[in-house]
Design a protein that fits this description.
48% of the residues lie in helices and 23% in strands. It has 146 residues and is of the alpha+beta class.
Length: 146
């Protein structure tokens, strides 16, 4: 079609159809993303209510050798992992990562290599695989002695 010619009715309809298909595709993608975000938000809300139960089971297991309790705790953790969660369990000497951890206590050190490193894990954290943190791990961190 030359610039001086008016578009034919078929060309106008073709253009309208192309735009409508693009609008539909954008709507479909936006709806899928909103659905994914809603499911993630709902899951986070439920999990934040379940994590104190998990903590209580873990604390109970420290004081007993009950195999049934150990099995229940293991099953609970496996279900969380199947639902796309991973435990945040930093070890002594790991770097402190404020995105995944919350420092709730510090311990002085004279070793420069241990500055801002984990001294101990006080409570495990949980996050979605490649997604938001449901609960930050609570840790004790080494800080250089002044």
């Amino acid at each position: 079609m030359k610039k001086s010619q008016k578009p034919s009715e078929i060309e106008i309809l073709k253009d309208q159809l192309t735009r409508a298909l693009a609008d539909y595709d954008n709507l479909r993608k936006r709806t899928e993303e909103e659905k994914r975000l809603w499911i993630s938000f709902s899951s986070q809300k439920i999990l934040s209510k379940l994590l104190p139960i998990l903590d209580a089971l873990q604390e109970s297991l420290k004081h007993t050798k009950d195999q049934g309790l150990a099995l229940a705790l293991s099953d609970f953790k496996n279900i969380l992992k199947e639902e796309g969660l991973e435990e945040i369990n930093p070890k002594k000497g790991d770097d402190f990562n404020h995105d995944l951890m919350e420092a709730i206590d510090t311990s002085e050190t004279e070793d420069k290599n241990m500055n801002n490193k984990i001294e101990s894990l006080l409570m495990s954290g949980w996050k979605f695989n490649e997604g938001p943190v449901v609960r930050h791990a609570k840790v004790k961190v080494f800080k250089l002695k002044n």
